[in-house]
Structures are given as C-alpha cells and as structure tokens.
Amino acid sequence: MFLTIGTTGTPERPATDLGFLLHKHPGKAQAFSTSYGTAHVLYPEADAERCTAALLLEVDAVALVRRGRGKGRGGAPDAALAQYVNDRPYAASSLLAVALSNVFSSAMRGVCNALPERAEQPLPLRIEVPALPARGGPDLVRRLFEPLGWTVTAEPVALDAEFPEWGDSRYVRLVLESEALPLAPALRHLYVLLPVLDDAKHYWVSSDEVDKLLRAGEGWLPDHPEQKLITSRYLSRRWSLTRQAMQRLELVRLAEADDSEVEEIDNAVEAETGTDEKPTPLAVQRRDAIIAALKESGAARVLDLGCGQGQLVQALLKDARFTEIVGVDVSMRALTIASRRLKLDRMGERQASRVTLVQGSLAYTDSRLKGYDAAVLSEVVEHLDLPRLPALEFAVFGSARPRTVLVTTPNVEYNVCWETLPAGHARHGDHRFEWTREEFRAWAGTVAERFGYEAEFRPVGPQDPELGPPTQMAVFTMKTMETMKTTNEHNEKEVTAA
Ligand code: SAH
Phi-psi region for residue 105, left (φ > 0), alpha (ψ -120 to 50) or beta? Predict the structure, then answer.
C-alpha cells in the first residue's frame, strides 16, 4: 500500500519544508512499526523545487489475522479476511489511513514548531494513490474530494493491463491536486475518505470511532454534501453510531446557523412539495387537514411527534383550543430551528406555558408522552427503517396511548405525477420507504387491530382519479368500551349469521 505527497517550492519557500511539516527528515528513510505492519517513509525526490514524501505500508498479514481473531465479533476470525489476504497488502485502504495517522499524527493536527505559520498556509499539493479500492468508482471519488477543493483525477485500473477486454478492476489510480489547502486538512481528508472508499474496515469499529471521525472531519465534514454516506461508511454502517455522529455534526452546523436559515428551509420545503401546487402548497394542505382532524377529535393536549422545524406547532399555537402542545424530535438541529421559529425566548409567559419542545426518539417508549389527547405523526413513519417501525408503533400506540393518532405519509403511487421526481425515486432523500394506498391501509389496519384502535382514511391534496392523493392520512381512534361492545356484537352477529 502506497501513497505519495508532493509539493513544489521556490527559493524563498523551498519544497523541502514539507519535511518539517510532516516531521520527517527528507534525507532519511524511516520505518515505524504499526499494529498492521511496518510503515516506511521515504522521499523519492527532495530539493528546493520539488519534494515528494512516500508512505509505504508493508502489511503483516499474519499479525492482521491474529488481531482479527482477538478483536472481531464474537472472537471469530472475520470471514472477509480471506479476501483481504489476497489483495489487501497491495492496495491502499483503511489500514493505510491508520498508518497515516500513526506516522503523521502531528502533521494531521497542524502542529509544526519549526514552521508554525507554514503549517497554517495553503501549499501546492499533489497526492497520488496508485491503487485505491473505490467502491462507487471514479464518480464517487470525485463526489467525495471535489467539494473539498481538490482537482481530482480518478482513473479506473484495468483488471489486467495485458487483457484490456477483461474490463476494469474496482481500483482507481487517484491523483489529488490543490493549491488551496494547508497540509493538515489535506491529510485529514485522506484519513477519513480512504476507508470510506474502501468500504471495508479491517478492525472492529467502536464508539470512539465517532470521536475520531468528528475530530478528523473538523472544518469540512459538517458541510460536505456526501456527509451521510461518509459517516455511515466510515462507521461501517453501524446504525447507532452513524446516528450519533450525524446528530453531533448537526450540533456543529447549528452553532453556525442563523435565522435566515429558517427562511431558507421554509423555501426548500415549499419547493420540495411542488411549487406548481400554488396557491396552496401540499405542506399547507397537509397541516390544514391535520388541524381539521384534531378539531374534530376534540383534542386539547396534543403531541407533534417528529415535529421537525415546528411548522405545525406554530399553527396549533394560533388556536386557543389547543391548550398544550408538545413537539418531539430526535434532531436537536430541527428543534433549535423550531424554537427560533416560535421565538420561544421572546414569548409571553402564558403562551410559552402552552408549548414544550423535547428531544427524544420515537423508537423508544417515553413516559413524558403519556396522557395526551392526540398525537400527530406527520410525514415521519417513512423516515424510520422498516424493522424499527414496530418499536415506534409500540411507543406511540402501546405506551403513550393518546385517544387519537393521526399519521400522514406519501402515497407512492402518486409519485409519477410529480414532474420533478425521476421515476422510481422517493420524494425525500431520507425516506426509507414509501407506501401505496393498499400498503398503508394494511399497515394501519394491523396496528389498529393490535392496539385497540379504529382506523379511518383520508386523502390529502389534489386527487388523481387512478393514483389517488399525494398524501394519505390515517385517523386512529382508540376503541372505547362502547365501540368495543358494538364491534363485538357486530362480530357475534356475523358469526351467528355464518
Ligand atoms: N412533522 C414534520 C417533519 C417531518 S420530517 C412535517 O410534517 O413537516 C421527519 C421528522 O422526523 C424529522 O424532523 C426527523 O428528525 C424526525 N424523526 C425521524 N426519526 C425519528 C425518531 N426515531 N424519533 C423522533 N423523530 C424522528
């Protein structure tokens, strides 16, 4: 596994300064032992004009397998290692990233006592990784590095140079060039993105990986357009860690957000819900339908579960019949934007006593949510992975148990009617699924049955005669003794009739 880091210089600023920045003398070849083998640092060229440092990792496959045995899940050697032993020692991967951080740890932190100001300044950089395993191919390589200010060359490596007809391997030759970056962030980009592209970590991912990711991602990851993919792959797709990291990244972004963002978000929501819907955007029609159903139910104390940025909470506050409104969301960022929108800090005492925003996950039961008249899940269920949905069902219908529950979700059949949606695409990047009317009814029916509710369905938005409405809503009403009796009698009659 091999990569080179090169720079160019002038007589006043010799390229060999790179040696100071990396804390490795250009005149020496040095070897360092790491957990996975020996890392060598040497300089194929080093003069005032051009200086290139090479990092070569000689992987000790035996040590690696032993390590895998000690640390892997359940102590068993990782089956993926079989493949590893074949090609890994020769290709840059997560191990090279680990070596990078071992060997250049001060440089990665931007520490340079010899040339402190040089460490902070951009310098011309050329980084080459001759064989980089890249799941997602050259296209993903570009999507990851270009937003960070790199000029990217990513060429697929042929499986076998003598037999071009065999096609490309999953490796690319990567060259990154930039004049805009200091060395430290450049190294941190590699430290995070090499394993992301490799997408197969060779060591056990533990919770301190989240800290490592956030530290290495400082200054660039919070705003990276592929932040989610980076986070999830870096953490080996471990859901709980990824969520934790995403939340902490949100907090970072939040510190930089300002009120104009609330407006931006509103505009984006409107755009997403289809500007051709004017004069009434679908989001507004949905809110109106929800409020109408809440009024019908006679609810006064209402939960908005997955309240997002607080638009519904704001609308409910305008109607005095809603005496208590609780917005719940897992995202601190959403809640902070909600609280800005509602101007909670400037609200009169009486008004403020009607509204609470709480952070919580709907996948867990929460005693704070008990005892309310109604709960709204507006465009929320589709944000949960299907296997997590039963946990939400239990938390809402089994534990919180309000008398009325309103659930809205997109009707996937309608998607072909959205001009802006490419066929077969969900409406929102984070939707884990979207249901047809039949699927939604089946789900709602089962939930109602299991938890003692009755479900009734309402269309929201302009109906297509064949495909139905863009949004579907289920109104769940808890069965009372009275309704249970009638249902039982009805069932008995049916039984007798049969
Ligand atoms: N109800 C709002 C927002 C819908 S977007 C509206 O109708 O406009 C979905 C919201 O659900 C997001 O704010 C997201 O943070 C939240 N969410 C997703 N999974 C959640 C969970 N497990 N617990 C709580 N909130 C969740």
Answer: alpha
